[in-house]
Amino acid sequence: MRKTDGLLKLIGLCVLAGVLVAGMLFPVAGAAGVLSNQASETVDKTSSDLADIPPPLVTTITDNTGEQIATLYKQFRIPTTETQINDAMKWALISVEDKRFYEHNGVDWKGTLRAAVSNSTGGDTQGASTLTQQYVKNYLINVVYRDDKPGQKRAQEQSVARKLKEARIAIQLETKLNKMQILTGYLNVVEFSREIYGVGAAANAYFNTPVEKLTVPQAALLAGLVNNPIVNDPWKNPAKATERRNLVLDRMVDNQKLAKVDAERFKAEPLGVVEGGPQKPASNCTGAGTENGFFCQYVEDYLLKNGMTKDDLYTGGYRIKTTLDKRANHEAKMSAEAQVKKTQENVANTLSLVKPGKQRHEVVALAANRDYGLHEDQGQTTFALPSGVYNTGGAGSAYKVFTAAAALEAGVAGINSSLPVPDFYTSSVFAGGGNKCAPTGPPLRSRWYCLGNAGDYNPAGGAMSMQQALATSPNTAFVALEEKIGSTGPVVEMARKLGMRDTMASNLGGGAVDPKSDNPGVNASQLQAFGPRPGWAGNASFTLGPAPLSGLELANVGATIMSGGVWCPPTPLAGVTDRDGKPVPVKEAACEQVVPEGLANTLAVGLSRDSAPGGTSSVAAGGAGWNRPVMGKTGTTQNNGSGTYLGATPQLAGAAMVFRPKGGNGGLCYFGPGNVRTGGCNPNMFGGKTPAQTWFGAMSKILEGQEALPLPQPDPKYMGGGR
């Protein structure tokens, strides 16, 4: 080596030493000038971030008994306390990463100067960071800047400025925390690869053991990982991992924390990690399994809708106790799957259940024939089929419930009022709202809304009571009833009030409204599309339920009626607590008395004949051995493209739907339970078949052993005639 090279190194060492010493003294002695002030502010800001920004934790979701069903996270971390860190883990880490940990004040001067000279003169890059400095760096990378790539890059750049800042923060930490607190903090923050952070999660994922029970070789493996978790991955690079583990054991011997004979014995042991990769839970709702995943998904959607951010949900370490009844959900799933195979192409069968109440409407079950999951070839999906606006086929005549309710509210008919039931009906009030047809009356307009019935009714005198019409579902009677109301306005608003909130706010495709679009099916909500406009009384087909809807919201309609007209949001939440166990308030919508209690009670009675002999769901009810009071309404859409059953008892309300989740033209063909398909057949699906069979099949088992409660008493005010 030339003399000038040695001199330059000596000069560099002296200059660097002066910079570092001056930097260390800065917080104590103070400094003048803008540059010094800015440097101090930067250090203070970073120190504040370390104190104020907590590490991401795992959010846990449970059922209504508190049993865990899923975890949500971005970083798999199990918090570890000081007392859980045993000597094996403590000394393995200290021996390999910071032998003088208990001797320095946050910075190892000898090591830092040696590394600085080596790095600045082109020698091998050396770290020489103490565990306290590594704690600072890892906290910045894994916590403060976890979603900030430029910030992460700055936190680990090889520069004197970064080292100086890191060292100053480390010294500040050493004045605020004791050594065990720093060691514990480091072991809770550092990454062990594959989204595994902290030694608690690592012990669980690598060895399926609690952290306090880590053995010496296990602790040595984990301590060796933190230097380079990717290179030392025991599954991808077992030879490297073994070499690194054995180095840690040697360092423990050098540090007089392990006998050499024991170290040699441990070196001969296999790595002992779990087979196939780290053991960690799913990081999203797929962890809830094929049966409970839809409910978990609704919990997530509900919290995001009510003000929580996804980042907060996935990093906040919340414990979310839900209203999920796993037994009810299982019965709902089994019934849905019994009617439609889970792998049946483009046929979904769902059942959503809600508990009525005047203070809360708790969601009890969200099930589908399809499994929740990522493997589409196995019939799985992560689309929220039971809760989202995914039934683009429509609810069919189940929407006649809204027409009946609007008629009761307007006073134009009661449940005993006689309604005309012609086989074919032409409306002049709703002219322009349907296809061209030959008018049966005076030719006042060139376009008419005209329709017929799906069956041959021919009731005595061509009329029947509203109660009988709700049970047998003639189309003409309810379009005529819309005429008596005067427009579709009260009907579509009734649908919104009783529970179809997200549904009526969506467009005709079931998606979000885009006012900038030129497509009328996209740029208007269903409330607007079916409601009246100047010169037009509205789209009378609304009572026939042709538009997309949410099955959960339809179930909540049943809960609203059975709750004396009180609407509450269908909540999946029993309680939320934060990482410290403190309750977290969730801003849920307030309950509303949307219709008079007498109206709701009378409507429930008006809907009570559907399962009786002659009603559209009577066969399904009889097949399930149903023998308790129930309000219900079936629905079938045009060309038998989808079917629905809305039913409710005082204990539980629910909606079952069978539909084509991928859309498409054509109807559904029913060949018996478990045999429903599309294409190559004559469509013959009805709401009284698969949907009603699904509903009664599940509810008969869920309510088994419970008292058969009567329906509410009707109010004479809404029984019959106008007022």
From TrEMBL:
Q: Which GO terms describe its cellular component?
A: outer membrane-bounded periplasmic space
Any one GO molecular-function label of the UniProt entry: penicillin binding
Limits of the Glycosyl transferase family domain = 67-252
The segment(s) forming the Penicillin-binding protein transpeptidase domain are: 456-644
Q: Which reaction does it catalyse?
A: Preferential cleavage: (Ac)2-L-Lys-D-Ala-|-D-Ala. Also transpeptidation of peptidyl-alanyl moieties that are N-acyl substituents of D-alanine; [GlcNAc-(1->4)-Mur2Ac(oyl-L-Ala-gamma-D-Glu-L-Lys-D-Ala-D-Ala)](n)-di-trans,octa-cis-undecaprenyl diphosphate + beta-D-GlcNAc-(1->4)-Mur2Ac(oyl-L-Ala-gamma-D-Glu-L-Lys-D-Ala-D-Ala)-di-trans,octa-cis-undecaprenyl diphosphate = [GlcNAc-(1->4)-Mur2Ac(oyl-L-Ala-gamma-D-Glu-L-Lys-D-Ala-D-Ala)](n+1)-di-trans,octa-cis-undecaprenyl diphosphate + di-trans,octa-cis-undecaprenyl diphosphate + H(+)
Under the heading Pfam families, the entry gives: Transgly, Transpeptidase
Q: Does the keyword Nucleotide-binding apply?
A: no
Claim: Lyase is one of the keywords in the record:
no
**SUPFAM superfamilies noted in UniProt:** beta-lactamase/transpeptidase-like, Lysozyme-like
> What are its GO biological-process terms?
cell wall organization; peptidoglycan biosynthetic process; proteolysis; regulation of cell shape
Query: InterPro entries from the xrefs?
Result: Beta-lactam/transpept-like, Glyco_trans_51, Glycosyltr_51/Transpeptidase, Lysozyme-like_dom_sf, PBP_transglycosylase, PCN-bd_Tpept
Q: Which UniProt keywords apply?
A: Carboxypeptidase, Cell shape, Cell wall biogenesis/degradation, Glycosyltransferase, Hydrolase, Multifunctional enzyme, Peptidoglycan synthesis, Protease, Transferase
Recorded superkingdom: Bacteria
Q: Which family does it belong to?
A: In the C-terminal section; belongs to the transpeptidase family.
Q: In its UniProt entry, what is this protein called?
A: Penicillin binding protein
